[in-house]
C-alpha cells in the first residue's frame, strides 16, 4: 500500500472545509456569548503548563472574547516557555497576565478575582493544589468579610486529560461522566459523592471556533498542539460543553463562632468538603456542634455534608434559635425550630430549604451514626441562589449533548430535546421552524423532555427563549444529511487525524 504524503493530506484537507455555512452563522447563537465582562477579573489556578487548557480551555476563550481580564497562575512553574506563551496567545491571554505563584493566599488577595477556576481532587498533583487552595480560601472567607468570589472546580484529569477520545463523532459530544475502573487514574469514584453531583454540574457552551468536527479549524486544538512537549490528546479534551462543580462562598457560617462538645469543630467551616471533617469523640455523650452569630443572619437554605468515606447514612437533629420576638428571659418556644433529618452517606449533602428566617444560634446533634460518622462542612445561605458575575443562560441539548448545528441522517425520524439551565427557573418556550412553517411550539417546564418529529424537513431552526426574559435565549440548527455527506465526513476526519499525527 502506498504511503500518503503530507502534501496529499494537506491538499485533501483544503477541499474539506468546515461544514458551517455563512448563512447559518447568523442563525446559531446563545445569550451566553452576547455578554461583555469588562472589569471582571478571572483567575485560573494551574499546577503546571498545559493545565490551564485541561481546566478551562474553552472558558478562557469565551471570556477573553467577552473582554474579561484573565490571569493564569502556575504553582509549580518558574518562568514562561516559548510553547506556553504561544498556547496562551492563541487563547487570548497576554504574557503580563501570567503569574508564578510563591504565596497562593497573597496572589488571591492581591488580585481579588471575581471568578476563580481551579483543579479538583482527581490526581496526586491536583489534590495538592486543590487542598492548598481550599485551605487558603477558607482562611480568606473568614478574614475578608467583603470578598466572595465565584469558584468553579474541575476534575481536569477525569473529564479532560483521561476522558474518552470521542472527538471524531458525527456531532460533538458532551463531556462523559468518569467511570471508576475505566477512566485512567480515576482511582476513587468521586461522582455523586460529597458535592460532586453529576446532575448539578455546571456546563458552559463552547465558542464558535471550537465546535468544528475537524481539528484543522478548532482554535482550542491549536492551543493544545502548541504544547509540543506535552502528551495531550485533543480527541479527549474537545467536547460540546466544558464542565465544572461550583463552590459557593456566600456561606453565613464564616461569620459564626463554632464550637463542639468534642472534636475539631473548625473543620465544618474551613471550606473543605472532601476529606477532613468534624468527628466527635466516641465517649462524647452529647455529640453537639454549636453555631452562634453576634448578629442574626438571614437563612433560606441549609446544607450539611457528611464524611465522604462513610458508607452509612446517619440521623441528626438540628435546632435553630431565631431572632424574632426575643424577650429578656431568652428564647420562647415560638422562636425555636427543630428538625430531625437523615444525613446521606458518602458525604452527599442534606439540603433543607426554609422560608426566610433570621438565625442567631444553631445546634446540630448526632442522634445515630457509624464509627466513620463525620460532618465535613455546614452551609447556611441567605438565598437559595447567590448573586453571580456569570449571568444565567440556557442551552439546547439533543439527548445529553449540547448542540449548535446538529447533523441528523434522513433515516432518523425524531430526536429527543432537552434543555440545560444555568440558574434559570422560569419556563422556556421552544419553537422549531422548517421552510418558514412552525413544526414545534412547546413550553419547557422543569426538566421535562420534548420529542421533535423531523418529517421531511431538510433544515430545522430551533429557538429557546425564557418566558418573560427574551434576553436569555438559545438558537440551534438541525440539518438532515444523506449517506454521501456522512461518508465524506468520515473521510475528512480520517485525513484530519492523519494530518495531525504527521
- Radius of gyration, CA atoms, in whole angstroms: 25 Å
β-strand amount: 25-35%
pLDDT below 50 for ≥5 consecutive residues: which ranges? 16-26
- Average per-residue pLDDT, rounded, comes to 91
- Give the biggest sheet: 7 strands, mixed
- Count the strands? 23
- Main sheet strand line-up: 4-3-2-5-6-8-7
Query: Overall 3D geometry?
Result: globular
Estimated helix fraction: 10-25%
- Work out the oligomeric state of the chains in this entry: single chain
Number of helices: 10
Structural class: alpha+beta
Head-to-tail CA distance between termini:
17 Å
What does this structure look like?
- The structure is a single chain.
- The protein is globular and about 75 Å long.
- The model is unreliable at 16-26 (pLDDT under 50).
- The protein is of the alpha+beta class.
- It has helices at residues 6-15, 22-25, 51-65, 82-91, 104-111, 124-143, 156-161, 219-226, 234-237, 483-501; strands at 29-30, 41-46, 69-74, 98-100, 115-119, 150-154, 202-205, 241-247, 257-260, 288-306, 314-322, 336-343, 350-368, 375-381, 393-398, 401-402, 405-409, 414-422, 428-434, 437-444, 450-453, 459-466, 469-481.
Q: What's this entry about, in short?
A:
This protein is of the alpha+beta class and 502 residues long.
Amino acid at each position: 500500500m502506498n504511503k500518503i504524503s503530507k502534501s496529499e493530506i494537506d491538499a485533501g484537507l483544503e477541499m474539506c472545509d468546515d461544514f458551517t455555512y455563512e448563512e447559518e452563522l447568523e442563525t446559531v447563537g446563545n445569550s451566553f456569548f452576547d455578554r461583555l465582562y469588562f472589569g471582571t477579573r478571572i483567575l485560573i489556578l494551574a499546577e503546571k503548563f498545559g493545565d490551564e487548557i485541561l481546566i478551562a480551555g474553552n472558558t478562557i476563550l469565551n471570556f477573553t472574547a467577552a473582554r474579561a481580564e484573565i490571569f493564569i497562575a502556575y504553582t509549580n512553574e518558574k518562568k514562561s516557555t516559548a510553547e506556553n506563551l504561544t498556547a496562551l496567545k492563541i487563547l487570548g491571554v497576554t504574557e503580563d497576565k501570567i503569574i508564578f505563584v510563591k504565596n497562593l493566599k497573597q496572589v488571591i488577595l492581591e488580585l481579588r478575582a471575581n471568578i476563580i477556576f481551579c483543579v479538583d481532587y482527581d490526581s496526586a498533583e491536583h489534590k495538592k493544589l486543590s487542598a492548598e487552595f481550599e485551605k487558603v480560601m477558607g482562611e480568606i472567607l473568614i478574614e475578608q468579610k467583603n470578598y466572595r468570589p465565584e469558584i468553579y472546580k474541575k476534575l481536569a484529569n477525569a473529564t479532560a486529560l483521561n476522558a474518552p477520545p470521542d472527538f471524531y463523532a458525527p456531532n460533538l459530544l458532551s463531556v462523559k461522566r468518569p467511570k471508576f475502573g475505566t477512566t485512567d487514574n480515576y482511582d476513587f469514584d468521586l461522582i455523586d459523592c460529597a458535592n460532586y453531583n453529576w446532575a448539578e454540574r455546571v456546563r458552559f457552551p463552547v465558542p464558535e471556533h471550537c465546535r468544528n468536527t475537524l481539528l484543522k479549524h478548532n482554535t482550542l486544538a491549536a492551543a493544545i498542539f502548541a504544547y509540543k512537549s506535552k502528551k495531550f490528546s485533543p480527541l479527549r479534551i474537545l467536547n460540546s460543553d466544558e464542565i465544572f462543580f461550583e463552590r459557593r462562598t456566600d456561606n453565613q457560617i464564616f461569620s459564626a463562632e463554632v464550637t463542639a462538645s468534642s472534636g475539631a469543630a473548625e473543620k465544618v467551616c474551613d471550606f473543605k468538603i472532601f476529606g477532613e471533617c468534624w468527628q466527635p469523640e466516641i465517649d462524647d455523650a452529647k455529640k453537639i456542634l454549636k453555631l452562634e452569630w453576634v448578629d442574626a443572619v438571614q437563612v433560606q437554605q441549609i446544607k450539611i455534608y457528611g464524611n465522604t468515606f462513610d458508607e452509612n447514612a446517619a440521623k441528626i437533629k438540628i435546632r435553630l434559635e431565631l431572632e424574632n420576638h426575643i424577650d429578656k428571659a431568652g428564647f420562647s418556644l415560638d422562636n425555636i425550630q427543630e428538625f430531625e433529618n437523615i444525613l446521606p452517606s458518602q458525604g452527599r449533602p442534606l439540603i433543607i430549604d426554609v422560608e426566610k428566617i433570621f438565625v442567631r444560634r444553631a445546634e446540630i446533634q448526632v442522634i445515630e451514626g457509624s464509627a466513620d460518622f463525620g460532618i465535613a462542612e455546614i452551609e447556611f445561605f441567605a438565598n437559595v441562589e447567590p448573586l453571580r458575575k456569570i449571568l444565567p443562560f440556557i442551552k439546547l441539548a439533543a439527548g445529553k449533548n449540547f448542540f449548535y448545528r446538529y447533523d441528523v441522517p434522513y433515516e432518523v425520524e425524531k430526536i429527543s430535546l432537552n434543555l440545560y439551565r444555568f440558574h434559570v427557573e422560569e419556563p422556556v418556550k421552544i419553537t422549531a421552524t422548517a421552510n418558514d412553517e412552525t413544526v414545534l411550539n412547546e413550553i419547557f417546564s422543569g426538566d421535562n423532555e420534548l420529542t421533535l418529529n423531523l418529517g421531511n424537513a431538510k433544515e430545522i431552526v430551533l429557538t429557546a427563549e425564557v418566558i418573560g426574559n427574551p434576553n436569555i435565549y438559545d438558537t440551534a440548527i438541525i440539518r438532515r444529511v444523506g449517506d454521501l455527506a456522512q461518508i465524506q465526513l468520515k473521510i475528512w476526519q480520517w485525513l484530519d487525524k492523519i494530518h495531525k499525527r504527521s
